[in-house]
């Protein structure tokens, strides 16, 4: 009875043209904690290395093992739980973060922490597979994009505000306390989720497509390919920001550059969210093209600090919007199979992160950072062409008045 009442309560704002913000912000908070859990070790390398008596390079693998957990678990775990009711499944994923971050907070063993980080990635893979579809089911179809944009707001907020704050807090009170605080916040989020989110049924067994069938849905492959090429381009540059900023004399201003990037990403999320339900295809093409323009600026004026800041602001705006664009395109394309399609998105996204890091590392050791912008342009050209061609399915042309 409780779940029925909650569902009706959450449906009312949507049916009256208002977003169910309390529930959507709970999803955004889940995303915030997920991203913060993923990347915070990168900001606490010295402290964690000293605690575990291991080199900083090994602490960096705490981020890698997290991505590996998401990569290997997202698709099979999401497919295996398609029949589960959505709210208990989401709570399991959120509650998992409370457990693994608590283990991390009290652990004195690098090996134990490594294992906890792997399972954190597993929970992240499941959570990201659920968020977009969950948000989309809370509103009418013509408001799905806006709802997903609100639910995705946690990502740019975590990158622009959460990571710097967590890094400062970790240096001030100790990294263990930082993870402990995240566990406490996650417990509060569990209560918020129980209170404000509606429940939805899982997919009936007779309607469940095999994974190969979901992949074969027209438009799914196009969305995944555009996502992969964009994320590879993004991570070639993002992973190696420090050496890239040296020619402009900004090596000591990484925090300021990333702050500009993060604020721009928040702006991009808001801008895309306002227009996505009507202009999804056009906004996707604009974001890819704008990132390409930023890459050209960085290629031509890589030693000009003003142009670097401008380029990072443009790049941030596009990056803030594309997760919402890609996840909305995936959810709308896959329909009832949205959660499995989103798990494929999680997998492709993590492949893109790894691929960008590998390609960027190879370029750094061979040609140097001067080649970054041109590789970005090549990847973005592939993404743009694929998005243009997906005019029937994936990123469809919408007739006037629809």
TrEMBL record:
The membrane topology of this protein is: Multi-pass membrane protein
Recorded hits in InterPro entries, A to Z, give: MFS, MFS_dom, MFS_Efflux_Transporters, MFS_trans_sf
The keyword Ion transport belongs to this UniProt entry's keyword annotation: no
Q: Which UniProt keywords apply?
A: Cell membrane, Membrane, Transmembrane, Transmembrane helix
| GO CC annotation terms, alphabetical | plasma membrane
Annotated Major facilitator superfamily (MFS) profile domain ranges read 23-393
| Entry's localization field | Cell membrane
Q: Mind listing the GO molecular function terms for this protein?
A: transmembrane transporter activity
Q: Which domain of life is it from?
A: Bacteria
Q: What is its main location?
A: membrane
Ranges that cross the membrane = 21-46, 58-77, 89-110, 116-135, 147-169, 175-195, 215-237, 257-276, 283-301, 307-326, 346-364, 370-388
Q: Record keywords: Cell membrane included?
A: yes
Q: Which Gene3D superfamilies match?
A: MFS general substrate transporter like domains
Q: SUPFAM superfamilies in the record, alphabetically?
A: MFS general substrate transporter
UniProt xrefs under PANTHER family: CHLORAMPHENICOL EFFLUX PUMP RV0191, PURINE EFFLUX PUMP PBUE
The protein here is known as: Putative MFS family arabinose efflux permease
Write down the species.
Answer: Phyllobacterium myrsinacearum
Taxonomy, top ranks, is: Bacteria, Pseudomonadati, Pseudomonadota, Alphaproteobacteria, Hyphomicrobiales
């Amino acid at each position: 009875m409780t779940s029925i009442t909650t569902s009706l309560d959450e449906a009312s704002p949507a049916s009256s043209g208002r977003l169910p913000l309390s529930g959507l912000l709970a999803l955004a908070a889940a995303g915030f904690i997920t991203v913060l859990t993923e990347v915070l070790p990168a900001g606490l390398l010295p402290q964690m290395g000293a605690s575990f008596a291991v080199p900083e390079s090994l602490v960096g693998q705490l981020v890698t093992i997290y991505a590996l957990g998401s990569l290997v678990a997202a698709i099979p775990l999401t497919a295996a739980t398609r029949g589960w009711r959505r709210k208990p499944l989401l709570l399991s994923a959120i509650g998992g973060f409370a457990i693994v971050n608590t283990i991390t907070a009290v652990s004195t063993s690098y090996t134990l922490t490594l294992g906890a980080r792997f399972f954190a990635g597993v929970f992240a893979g499941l959570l990201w597979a659920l968020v977009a579809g969950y948000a989309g089911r809370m509103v009418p179809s013509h408001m799905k994009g806006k709802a997903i944009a609100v639910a995705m707001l946690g990502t740019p907020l975590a990158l622009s505000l959460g990571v710097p704050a967590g890094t400062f807090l970790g240096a001030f009170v100790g990294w263990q306390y930082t993870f402990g605080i995240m566990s406490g916040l996650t417990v509060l989020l569990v209560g918020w989720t129980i209170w404000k989110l509606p429940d939805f049924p899982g997919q009936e067994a007779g309607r469940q497509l095999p994974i190969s069938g979901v992949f074969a849905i027209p438009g799914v492959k196009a969305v995944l390919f555009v996502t992969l090429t964009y994320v590879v381009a993004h991570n070639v540059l993002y992973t190696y920001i420090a050496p890239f900023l040296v020619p402009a004399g900004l090596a000591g201003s990484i925090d300021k550059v990333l702050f500009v990037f993060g604020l721009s990403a928040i702006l991009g999320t808001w801008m895309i969210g306002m227009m996505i339900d009507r202009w999804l295809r056009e906004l996707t093409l604009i974001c890819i093209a704008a990132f390409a323009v930023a890459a050209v600026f960085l290629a031509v004026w890589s030693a000009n600090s003003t142009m670097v800041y401008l380029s990072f602001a443009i790049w941030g705006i596009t990056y803030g919007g594309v997760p919402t664009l890609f996840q909305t395109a995936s959810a709308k394309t896959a329909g009832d199979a949205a959660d499995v399609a989103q798990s494929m998105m999680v997998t492709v996204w993590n492949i893109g992160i790894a691929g960008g890091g590998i390609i960027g590392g190879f370029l750094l050791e061979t040609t140097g950072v001067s080649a970054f912008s041109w590789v970005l342009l090549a990847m973005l050209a592939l993404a743009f062409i694929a998005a243009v061609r997906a005019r029937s399915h994936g990123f469809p042309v919408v007739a006037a008045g629809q």
